[in-house]
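Retro notes (design track)

What went well: tokenization of the new backbones is finally stable.
What didn't: we kept losing track of which sequence belonged to which structure.
Fix going forward: every design gets posted as structure first, then sequence, in one message. First example under the new rule, 369 residues:
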């Protein structure tokens, strides 16, 4: 059997089309099939049907159908090759020459790194929930106004600088230092000493659109000069191609017809907690073409909510220059008195914040004003 056909068969054997479709539409079993409202067009009577036995779907309203690869293509607005790669990653199937190797000489591939990241997520969560180790970090989260529910929803964790270390825990879990290095969970100093990338930091898992943990952001809980630190580029993570919170926001973007883009992790948490689940955050860089293309999969309108200072104005200008040529409607919103979104929400509340979004101006009007 040709290698491509073999990989395709392996993917369809391991990935359940009902599970994939259920992430986007509520399905109800009717006999051997499942039915629901079509995720590709607006309808009131369910005409979207999935057959797990045949591994296919069909909407008798808009006509879209075929297999799980077609579903991902349509739903994520990607090419067949990209849909194939996304499903292969999800199925844990290495595509070899597709560029999924780390390039760092460790032999770790994208699947290995995803496994290490998932383990690290659970490790950081245990640290945060620990009665003794996590007390200071939990107090910080609580004082910032974040609930336990939002902490669990986004998988917040704690990287320690002592007890609860990554290296010690990884050794017990039989995860090699080479794999930790490939995932950028540990680094090596000039003198050859290994050290943990994230120390004494509140951890924010960064997921891709499928929910896979691709990297981390860490906010210092001490006096580190680097307030925020992100995973370096790996075989799995590229900060210019992802958006924080995209896995949770994508459905809300489609339902609400817009995305709200903020600058930081805590801003994103605050906005989602206040009742605006369509919010995502950039990853410490200016907005990129790839990030706009990611947003375009789910909506055709974006409200940019950046800081009201020179840096925020520069970020807004860059966002407009990137968004407009890519045929997405861009609007700019400003928080009064130069506040951050999370500070403003604590002071003024969700209703006032909603008014801020509703008063967002068109990008061209912002440029001409």
């Amino acid at each position: 059997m040709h290698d491509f056909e073999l990989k395709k068969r392996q993917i369809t054997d391991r990935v359940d089309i009902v599970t994939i479709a259920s992430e986007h539409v509520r399905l109800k079993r009717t006999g051997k099939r499942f039915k629901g409202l079509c995720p590709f067009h607006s309808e009131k009577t369910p005409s979207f049907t999935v057959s797990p036995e045949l591994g296919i779907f069909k909407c008798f309203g808009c006509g879209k159908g075929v297999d799980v690869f077609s579903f991902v293509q349509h739903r994520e607005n990607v090419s067949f090759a990209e849909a194939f790669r996304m499903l292969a990653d999800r199925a844990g199937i290495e595509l070899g020459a597709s560029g999924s190797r780390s390039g760092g000489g460790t032999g770790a591939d994208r699947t290995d790194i995803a496994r290490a990241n998932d383990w690290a997520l659970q490790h950081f969560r245990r640290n945060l929930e620990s009665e003794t180790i996590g007390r200071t970090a939990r107090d910080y989260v609580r004082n910032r106004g974040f609930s336990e529910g939002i902490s669990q929803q986004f998988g917040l964790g704690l990287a320690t600088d002592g007890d609860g270390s990554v290296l010690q825990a990884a050794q017990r879990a039989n995860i090699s230092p080479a794999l930790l290095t490939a995932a950028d969970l540990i680094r090596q100093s000039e003198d050859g000493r290994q050290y943990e990338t994230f120390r004494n930091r509140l951890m924010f898992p960064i997921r891709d659109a499928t929910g896979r943990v691709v990297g981390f952001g860490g906010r210092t809980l001490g006096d580190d000069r680097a307030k925020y630190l992100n995973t370096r580029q790996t075989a799995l993570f590229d900060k210019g191609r992802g958006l924080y919170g995209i896995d949770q926001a994508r459905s809300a973007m489609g339902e609400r017809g817009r995305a709200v883009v903020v600058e930081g992790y805590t801003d994103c948490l605050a906005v989602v907690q206040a009742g605006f689940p369509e919010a995502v955050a950039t990853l410490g860089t200016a907005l990129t073409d790839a990030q706009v293309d990611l947003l375009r999969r789910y909506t055709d309108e974006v409200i940019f909510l950046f800081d009201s200072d020179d840096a925020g104005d520069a970020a807004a200008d860059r966002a407009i220059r990137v968004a407009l040529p890519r045929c997405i409607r861009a609007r700019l919103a400003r928080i009064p008195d130069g506040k951050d979104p999370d500070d403003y929400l604590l002071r003024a509340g969700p209703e006032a914040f909603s008014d801020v979004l509703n008063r967002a101006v068109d990008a061209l009007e912002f440029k001409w004003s």
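Added context from the reviewer: Residues 206 and 215 are 5 Å apart (CA to CA).
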